[in-house]
Amino acid sequence: MSEMTENQSAVEPAKETKPAEEQRKTEAVIEEFPIPDWVPEWARDAPKIIVRAPGPKSKEIIKIDRDYVSYAYDRCFTFTIEKAAGSAVMDADGNVLLDFSAGIAVMNAGWTHYKVTKAIQDQASKLIHSMANDAYFDKEAYFARLLSEISPGKALKGTFFANSGAEAIEASLKLSRYYTKRSEHLAFFGSYHGRIGAGLALTSKLKLRYSYGPMSPGIIFTPFAYCYRCSFKQTYPECGLWCVDYIENQVLNMAGTTGPIASLYVEPIQGEGGYIVPPKEFLPRLRKICDDQGALLVFDEVQTGFGRTGKMFACEHFNTIPDILVMGKALGGGTPLGAIIAKHDIMRKWRPGSHSSTFGGNAITMAAGLAHVQAIIDENLADRAAKLGDYAVKLLKEMQTRREIIGDVRGKGMMIGVELVKNQYTKEPHEATNIQGKCWRAGLLTLTSGFYGNVFRIAPPLCLSKAQLEKGLEIFENALKDEEEFLKLGTSAPPGKLGGHA
Ligand SMILES: Cc1ncc(COP(=O)(O)O)c(C=O)c1O
Question: What local confidence, expressed as pLDDT, does residue 491 receive?
Fold first, then answer.
């Protein structure tokens, strides 16, 4: 099924924006989008830096951590988090940071949303472990029903709850093999689907796979529609999507598969790959490939889901419905939760015992996730993300005319990538780590991504206010300006060890 049903809420794919429409859009976002009333006083005027980080309390914890916690965590920042609310994070020494990261696109309704906190507290006082493997649990049923109601085109029904995005990917790969009785899969350069098992096998970056050996055979990678740096040196739209022609004509015939594939994995907007928005025809054409192959189309919306892109799910921008939708991050409202939802006939194929998890459908994660997703719906946060996101892109494009270090600005809603270059014409990447550090010192939390570690991802909580957005972008531009001065001197600040992870 490649078309959306009549009663769904998705709009047509983006058309060329006319100047008058542009003007109206800009006027629409003149709304203030104030900080919500529930956000406490201390979190309303971020940033506030009172001590150079790491302060003494942060240091004390970091020292113990370095002794006892695995070094595998790739920490971006040397502070210890104490508390967070709305769009602000406080460190152990009382510094308040404005947050453009949402804990890697998790806290969509805002940190410590009062409804999520209350749902967890109420649930914890009654039942913590739901024994969902063995008995039925009310919130699991309600949550699965809600996910079906908000699924793209209301076309998906039947949820399996797991404990993380990667576990949900694992479930999706098993389901696609179980359903098709095939075992080969297609994924994209720049993809990120997790760090264990199937998720790692489907993740393309060498750095993340290095020294683990093949996690699963039968996975073929092909270039994503990354038009700013096209693998085929083509230009959109003249190319007619060469990258998809390549899949149709070459990959599926010559990459050494043993037959039609079981499933094709794609992030509707690439996350770790660098917040890359593909052209509007990309996903519909992948849908067609899967239909022709009898393969399942799997959308990984772990990072793009739940209002982040200005729609409940990013695939709604592209009018394309997957066979399996993978969810995580914001799904659990800050608790560890992942899930897949599929077309009903596909999910129904799984018989009892086909897959399982002790903690999937856990009472606390169900209560938290249900409250979080309901808050996103009730507070119209997808719409807020769409409008504030348009405004942010407008400001960033203006910034690009002033700052030569910005090569590309792209995004949907509050999932915006700013790609840095040494020169806008050569597009030589400029690593973002130093600027990330400068932003942090000035009180702004940002994350980076992209193959070259040169893409800033702007992914704040969706309750961010317009004033907070403007303040954060001002800090961001100051950091860029500072870096440009280093570049002009030919002494770009030394590479640091700050960031670039999932
Ligand atoms: C698109 C995507 N898929 C899967 C994952 C893995 O999720 P988790 O870290 O919860 O295992 C991530 C995490 O960043 C992601 O961005």
Answer: 56
